[in-house]
Amino acid sequence: MKRPLTHILNRIFVRGFYQAHAGLFLFFFLFMVGAVEPGQLLGYHKTLMLAFITSPLMLLVVFAVWFLYTIKCWHYVVGKITAPTQHFLYYSVNSFTKKDQLISWFIIQLSILSPVVIYGLIAVGVGLFYHFYLTPILIIAYLVVLCAASAWLYVTVVDRLVDSGSALWIMRWCSGWKKPFFSLYIYQVLNGLKIPYVITKGLSWLIITGVFQLFNDVSTDARVAGIAVLAIAVAHAVLVFEGQRFEHTYLSFSRNFPYSFIQRYVYILLTYALMILPEAVWLFSRFNPLLAMQLLLMVISVLMLLHTLIYSMGLNMDKYLQWVMGLFIVLFWIMMFKLMPVLIVGNIVLSYLIFSRHYYKDMPITNEKK
Fold this sequence. Notes:
Largest sheet: none
Distance between the termini: 30 Å
Number of strands: 0
Shape: globular
Strand content: under 5%
Oligomer: single chain
């Protein structure tokens, strides 16, 4: 029996998503099909699937690409939900039970992710045919987690206007504290971005456990830990983008404060140091202090680079995600050559140069097609 809520949401979001991104899908289709000769197409994709089924490194890259595509989906759907023309959803959707909402949104996200899901299921079939069992299970579990987390996010966004709710207990508890300038975005995360924060931390936990399960035989290799923290930085990409949006929307007046460039840069760095405090506890509990400090600086330096790049490119999610994916691939291969200290210094220096060059310039804002 067809769910009426699913039918309505499908017409609004799924069709709209594919119409808005038809050019992107056409490009990827031509890239995937036109990369090799027609007679070699099946063999090429079978080899590609076997590569990431048998290689944990390649699987991590594929999972990162799928996650960035999911961020793209979140950006579109949440933007559509909060558009003035869709405010009727806050009341009509909430007439259904939470269970019905979650199931319908899960199906909608599954539909939006259908290119990834279809390719992933074909890869699962290839893996099972060649008697690989762990990776197919991980692929299916990862896709289910992405869809479930997305459904939870959408239900929470739809509920937000109807249920104004009370402040988070930690916000009430610390309401009387002094709040340094660098901590303002942390409070914004705890107050208005709780769901993205929880999802991000959940992904961090999956990355930490998954990477060290896949690389159990070389778990003491610093490169494995470096790959893990690089993936953790990518998992925080949404929070970095929202941090820039928050700064542009609510803190633009702070440019008049009598702070030097170095002070402003350090304040941003402290913000991200606080944000990844749970990951820092894990690093220092697992590794020796010197390596743990290197890994902590690595993830902070990547977050700083992502943050400062937005000053030059503007609040454009499409372009931002392209840069995130490109940086992930480049830094991933540099990490394989055991050049983590070079990467840390390079990220910090480059991010400071971009910051000092673009901070006082007007940030370009792109009205993306919804």
